[in-house]
Amino acid sequence: MKRGLTLPVLAALAALVAVRPAAALPTLGDSLQSFTLPQSDGSSFRWQPGTVTVFTFCAFWCDTWKTQSESLAAARKALQGLPVSFITISVDDRWSERARGKITGTLLADPGSAFSKSLGIDGIPYLLIVDAEGRIREAARGVTRAAMIEQAVRGLLEGTPAPHEVTVYLVFDDFPSRVGGATTDLDDLLLDALRSAQAKATFFCRGDHIAGSAEVVRRAAREGHSLQIHSWDHRADRPLLARCVQVLQETAAVTPTLYHPPGCARFQRLRGEPLALAVVNPYDYLRPGASELVRRVSLAAKPGSVILLHAGVSETVEVLPEIIRALRARGFEFGVLE
Predict the structure, then answer these.
(1) Cα–Cα distance, 240 to 277 (Å, whole number)
(2) Is 308 found in the same domain as 231?
(3) CA torsion, points 251, 254, 255, 258, in degrees to nearest 10?
(4) Cα separation of 95 and 40, whole Å?
(5) What tens digit of pLDDT does each residue of 52-104 get?
(6) What Å distances lie between residue 51 and 133, 163, 172, CA to CA?
(7) Are residues 328 and 288 in the same domain?
(8) Which among 49, 80, 185, 311 is most buried, taking Cβ atoms within 10 Å?
(9) In angstroms, rounded to a whole number, what is the distance separating the alpha carbons of residues 316 and 296?
(10) Which letter does DSSP use for residue 229 in this model?
């Protein structure tokens, strides 16, 4: 952005602040309902499901729309002749002759940012790709590469699975949990949520908590989850791995093979070999809010990603079914680390 902003530009910036989400961001797999917005000539345009549609939310006070438009134009050229629509929505309701000449597809206005607010759009440019049934299949903040758009659209039109439709791993640190130093029912509720969703997870355990929560640890093992080590008392400088292995064997008859050091994104085998894993850390222990937690996980997950969460966080337990649903909507399956 250039220095020395004028008053009109500052006003436009203030208008965008109002776009901060009053609703949760679109979650992959959700349905986008029919809507009507004005076109640049003042006539009304009604969108409804029926064809694959690429939506871009932008603001003309920010030059990112120019770069995004180049990507959209390249994607449209590559997809020429295929049944796909391109729609650009101006969140600040501003128009310019320059913009009209460079926008790919239909250009719509969002007076007062009302439609953007209803979707919780919190940054521009923001891209949604919706299938012919109206389900959101891709979502991305920032300038999007033409190749990504083309690949996603072709996958929807051809009915072929996208390359990212593979396994991800739900991982929970600090299991079994303590809240204020005391046991709670949060771990049982977490296991209930996983069982209801028919999803398996990997629990990295604190050795000093195992004996006092033996039944929930045995339940996790019995229900097919993987139990691994997160140090004895959450100290990376003295993890006491052998002691952790012993208490897990004695309590749940399982022999762990992996170690996740506290305060570290590294996962490794007990012998020390690192695992090549892409870690998605949504910082759930900071309680960012349910909708934000779902957004962080569902948009960041990639093939083979470890979704790093924490036991003992009530918000995580509450929103876990939605996280699982959002990931499954992208075609992901759930595996365990062993």
Answers:
(1) 24
(2) yes
(3) -100
(4) 7
(5) 999 999 888 777 888 888 889 999 999 999 999 999 998 876 665 555 567 78
(6) 8, 22, 40
(7) yes
(8) 311
(9) 12
(10) E
